[in-house]
Design goal:
It contains eight helices and ten strands. The protein has a single domain, classed as Spore Coat Polysaccharide Biosynthesis Protein SpsA, Chain A, CATH 3.90.550.
Amino acid sequence: MLHTADFDRKSILCSSLACIVLAAGESSRMGGENKLLLPLQSSTVLGTTLSLYAAVGFGKIICVTGRDHRQTQYIAEQEGIQTLYNPDFMRGMAYSMRTGVQSIAEHEYEGILIALGDMPFCSRASIYQLCSTFLSAPKNAICVPYFEEQRGNPVLFSIAYKQDLLLLTGDVGAKSLLKKYQQYCIRVEMQDNGCVRDIDTNEDWQNAQRK
């Protein structure tokens, strides 16, 4: 268990990293509702997710919006997080990544964490574990979280891959880069399932409400 002083020290380390939270999707499996705006805990799905990353201490956090831009922008502003609107959000996740990544200056940050707005169950300890592993790894590392043999999110890319991220297309995220640069990928074993648990369907949300 990490204590307050541990969190403070790790927050300082994370200041050399940027974080992009993708919150532009269409929620196509939710039957019309935007899953990110659904209530969860004392906030919303997106609000709960953003509060985690706002507390980590990243040097820069960008929330990329698309559908329901004004509502998602308001939620992000409550956490002090800047938003960028992706007008091409219907074309797939890659275009949201590109919107966020292009705002990150290569000379200012060592890496870019790509996070998903519908994954509110990640723990701060797990994010710090991912970041500290990255900061002690070779400069071209890609740190990928795993829980019980299942690959998860968020993924932390060295800034060396900025141009590769900007060339992505479609709706499969950065999976192609993990395959292309698999020799540089570092598997980081997580102690909880937050990195593999999202809210994708109404059933997922109902289950989250009961816990």
